[in-house]
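Second opinion, please. Pick holes in both lines of this record:
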Amino acid sequence: MLQHTFCHIHRISERKERELWAAGIHSWQAAIAADSLGVARVNHDTLKRNLDESLARLHHGDSHYFAQHLPSQQLWRLFSDFRHRIGYLDIETTGLSGHFDKVTTVAVYDGQEIHTYVQGRNLDRFPKDIRRYEVLVTYNGKCFDVPFIEAFFRTKLPQVHLDLRYILKRLGFTGGLKGCEHKMGLNRGELEGVDGFMAVLLWGEYQNNGNAHALDTLLRYNVQDVLSLEVLLVRAYNLLLAATPFARSGSLDLPKQPENPFPADALTLRRLMRQFGWHYGEERFRR
């Protein structure tokens, strides 16, 4: 979709972009090769100079250039061209109270491999490893994951950031990550009903009682979040693409998710739900 995009160029609005599409100027190459554009108040020479730069920036993998020039609601257009340089990111923490909370586990998925980081094991490797990605994808990461990571590790995450919370909200999907999954027909199986509060309990069970099954269950939950991010982003991309002339040629196949390598322990989950049933409510508790 990025190479069909013109609204990252100064003085070309999304309306002017649609006029270019309607005039048959469907791509950067078409605009550069055209003898004239047939669109009022769009200077052909200026457009060609900007598109030459766009091609050079894309060739060098400069996602920041496009992120800085695209309207914020159009950042989704980066996805297809930068998909091979994306890290889907999610963290779990000791709580939400602020200054004294810590990162417990981190999951990162790049579309091929799953990487996990655990406090007390390999968490110190995360700040270096995350630099390999050009673009980060999260759900609500602008408000939570990224500022939490930057404060906890005392580092900056300079990558281009696609926050699915806002992309999906534009399409009418709300209710948190799990709510969006349900509305798109995704099911978490044995993790159904597990939430961020349970993630805190699982970490406490592992830390306080040495329950390795609790850690495996926590990591399964953490990893499932990042696997879901890719599926949701592909679906959102296709839905947004459907409002352009390029739905048929540009739609993406849904990804095949890899096997989640961590098992969930039903006994540990059931015991914690019984112990903290006041949080989960009577209906969920009975399930």
Summary: The chain has two domains: 2-60, 81-286. The radius of gyration is 22 Å. Residues 2-60 form one domain.
